[in-house]
Amino acid sequence: MTTEQSNPDSLLTVADVAKWLCVSSSLIYQLVEAGKIPVLRIGNGRGAIRFRSEDIQSYLDECRSQQIPVQPQRKTRPQLKHIQLE
C-alpha cells in the first residue's frame, strides 16, 4: 500500500487559495462542500483544511476547458402605447 506524501511547504490554506483565485474564503468553502476542489483534512474531527497546489491548478484547468462563450444580451425597448386624442 502506498501513501501519497506532500511537501508541507506546498500545502495551501483556505486564505492562500482564495488570494490565488481572487475570490472570497466563503467561495472556497462552497467549492470544497460541492466537491469541486479536493482537500486534505489535518487533525481530529473536521480538522484543518489544506490544499495541494496541483489540485488547485487542476481545478483551474478544468474551469478553462468548460468555458462557455457569453453572448451579449440584447436590450429590449419598451413597447410604446399609443393613445388617440379626440
TrEMBL record:
<dbReference type="InterPro" id="IPR041657">
    <property type="entry name" value="HTH_17"/>
</dbReference>
<dbReference type="GO" id="GO:0003677">
    <property type="term" value="F:DNA binding"/>
</dbReference>
<feature type="domain" description="Helix-turn-helix">
    <location>
        <begin position="11"/>
        <end position="64"/>
    </location>
</feature>
<dbReference type="Pfam" id="PF12728">
    <property type="entry name" value="HTH_17"/>
</dbReference>
<feature type="region of interest" description="Disordered">
    <location>
        <begin position="67"/>
        <end position="86"/>
    </location>
</feature>
<protein>
    <submittedName>
        <fullName>Helix-turn-helix domain protein</fullName>
    </submittedName>
</protein>
<dbReference type="InterPro" id="IPR009061">
    <property type="entry name" value="DNA-bd_dom_put_sf"/>
</dbReference>
<dbReference type="InterPro" id="IPR010093">
    <property type="entry name" value="SinI_DNA-bd"/>
</dbReference>
